[in-house]
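User:
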Amino acid sequence: MPRRILVIVGHPDSNPKRLCRALADSYAEGARSAGHEVRQIDIAKLDIPLLRSVEEFQHGMIPPDLRDAAEAIKRAEHIVFVFPLWLGTMPALLKAFLEQIMRPGLAFAYPETGKDGFAKTLLKGRSARVLVTMGMPAPIYRLWYLGHGIAGMRRNILNFVGISPVRETLYGLVEAVSDARRKKWIAAVRTLGERAG
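Assistant: Predicted structure:
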């Protein structure tokens, strides 16, 4: 059954030679070839201001340059995040993007005034895949560092707003990878896109 898929390229560098861009394009091509509706957002092309207060997060308006992205997230049934691992987690620009988008009223709702309870998830029913490139071996990141940056994204952001399940695919030692291995990764991601998973 066709799905509405949103692919978010979370690499702050707009250089088209970045592996993240090739992976994102390959996923999108695979999904389109299988009949899925695909939209891509490239954060390197957006003006993403930083949030500087709780007041701004809770009551501020989503910046004009991000309103279309916010609507795309609400409309999507499956969201793919593609980004490099920087200092053990996502790049700051991607975090700034998520802080702007995953706000009260769009991604979750606080309990009513005077009532106890947990926040209500507003993005329930969506799934996600996280594709991450890194300089270190992927098994080391998983086993030694316990994949903390990605686990935090999954648990503290995506699951918090209702996005589940969240699947991960990690690509390690990317600076030293051979062309053949790179092509194999890109082909495998195309297959993930075809399966929309």
